[in-house]
Design goal:
By secondary structure, the protein is an alpha+beta fold. It folds into 2 domains: about 5-65; about 75-155, Glutaredoxin, CATH 3.40.30. The chain has 7 helices and 4 strands; from the N terminus they run ααααβααβββα. It has helices spanning about 5-15, 25-35, 40-50, 55-65, 85-90, 90-100, 145-155, and strands at about 75-80, 115-120, 130-135, 135-140. The protein has a 4-stranded mixed β-sheet with strand order 2-1-3-4, with helices on one face. Helix 1 (about 5-15) packs antiparallel against helix 2. Keywords: Iron, Iron-sulfur, Metal-binding. This is Iron hydrogenase. GO terms for molecular function: iron-sulfur cluster binding; metal ion binding.
């Protein structure tokens, strides 16, 4: 049995439960998916949301609250600030360059799924804008060239 089929069976099992939308059922389902895959892929979250009749954001909230539940595995995370002051200092230009360089998909992943890109409205570091976090480390007053150089190291 392949992974996709196994995940589908897990989701269908929990969708058939008496109260599939209850948090305990959702958590049990997510844990079982993670046991099978090693993580909880976005595709599995979307399928589960559809089958259970809940928004995918429900899974996101639960996974944030329970740190043992992990979304897809990636090697690096890049968070770019898109707050007003960072935008005034060309953060959107940096974001566009990163998306083009990495060929980011609609879910924020590079094609090899090793780099995850997301944005944050404000990092509360406005004096040193534009800002970004690379693997949790804050970089202040970044330039497009600095970010692209970092991406080359990651590839």
């Amino acid at each position: 049995m392949n992974f996709e089929q196994e995940i589908r069976e897990i989701i269908e099992y929990y969708a058939a439960q008496r109260n599939p939308k209850e948090q305990e059922n959702i958590i049990a389902m997510l844990r079982e998916i993670q046991e099978t895959e090693g993580c909880i892929p976005l595709a599995a979250q979307e399928l589960a949301a559809e089958k259970l009749g809940v928004k995918r954001s429900v899974f996101t909230c639960i996974m944030k609250r329970l740190p043992d539940l992990k979304e897809e595995i990636y090697s690096h995370q890049l968070v770019l600030c898109t707050g007003e002051r960072c935008q005034n200092k060309k953060s959107m230009e940096i974001l566009k360059a990163v998306k083009e360089e990495l060929k980011i998909d609609k879910d924020g992943f590079s094609p090899d799924r090793k780099i995850y890109l997301k944005t944050q409205n404000c990092m509360k570091q406005c004096r040193t804008s534009p800002n970004m976090k690379a693997d949790g480390e804050l970089y202040a007053a970044v330039t497009k060239e600095q970010v692209l150089a970092l991406l080359k190291k990651w590839k």
